[in-house]
Amino acid sequence: MEPVTLITGGSTGIGAATARALLKQGHRVAVTGRGADKLAAFAASAGAGERLLTITGDTSQAQDVASAVGRVMDAWGRRLDNVIANAGFSLPGNLESHDPEDMRAMVLTNILGPALLVRETLPHLRESKGRIVIIGSVAGVRNTPGNLYSVTKWAAHALAENTRLLVGKDGVGVTVVAPGVVDTPFWDERGGTPEAAPVMTAEQIADTIVFAVNQPAGVDINHITMRPTGQLG
Q1: What distance separates the 2 farthest-apart alpha carbons in the chain?
Q2: In sequence order, what DSSP letters do the residues of 125-189 get, joined into one string?
Q3: Residue spans per domain, the chain
């Protein structure tokens, strides 16, 4: 039977590139996003028919996460093999300049969102002996002054390790993929990718996610940090 994969934040960027790569491999893929228009545009461009399910919702809201997982289970025979926690965003500036409500939204999306996804999907992944991939960041392995986004990614990396300790005995794999600078819409709210900085593509990150997902039973890739050549920090 075709594997079933759920990706949060899957309408653009790394999520969309990963969805395309897995669809090409024969997966059934469900992607979530907050924007119905972006999801519809992605679905039209993907041309995957009934093998792609798009779900509008906010990954920081427990009811939206539960609803998304329920829709996946109902659509494809109560099966879930892989979960990719990709939804997240950053704010321009630093914690001295952030609006407190924007800070709250980023913390909830980047930390609570993956935790809710893990909580909701673990019963199904234990059954399938599936895999969890959490999209972290180089910002989650190094600190920069006042970078609250970095704080959220350190927490996401910790969530992955805590989850691995919880479910490794059950045959569930847990991987962090922690990219450096990637040329995606992620940078739109920060004024674009850093000028003259080396960048990777969303497709390159997707290839790494697929590599982790495709490991044979008994092999668990725990953490991959990747930078474009020339990114020193």
Answers
A1: 51
A2: HHHHT-EEEEE--GGGTS--TT-HHHHHHHHHHHHHHHHHHHHGGGT-EEEEEEES-B-SGGGGG
A3: 4-226
The CATH-assigned architecture of domain 4-226 is: 3-Layer(aba) Sandwich (3.40)
Helix or strand (DSSP H, E) at 53 = strand 52-56
pTM to 2 decimals? 0.94
Could you give the CA distance from residue 226 to residue 205 in angstroms, rounded to a whole number? Answer: 8
Say which residue the tokens 């509008």 belong to: 56
Digit-by-digit pLDDT tens for the chain (233 residues) are: 899 999 999 999 999 999 999 999 999 999 999 999 999 999 999 999 999 999 999 999 999 999 999 999 999 998 999 999 999 999 999 999 999 999 999 999 999 999 999 999 999 999 999 999 999 999 999 999 999 999 999 999 999 999 999 999 999 999 999 999 998 766 555 555 555 578 899 999 999 999 999 999 999 999 999 999 988 77
Distance CA 216, CA 127 (A): 17
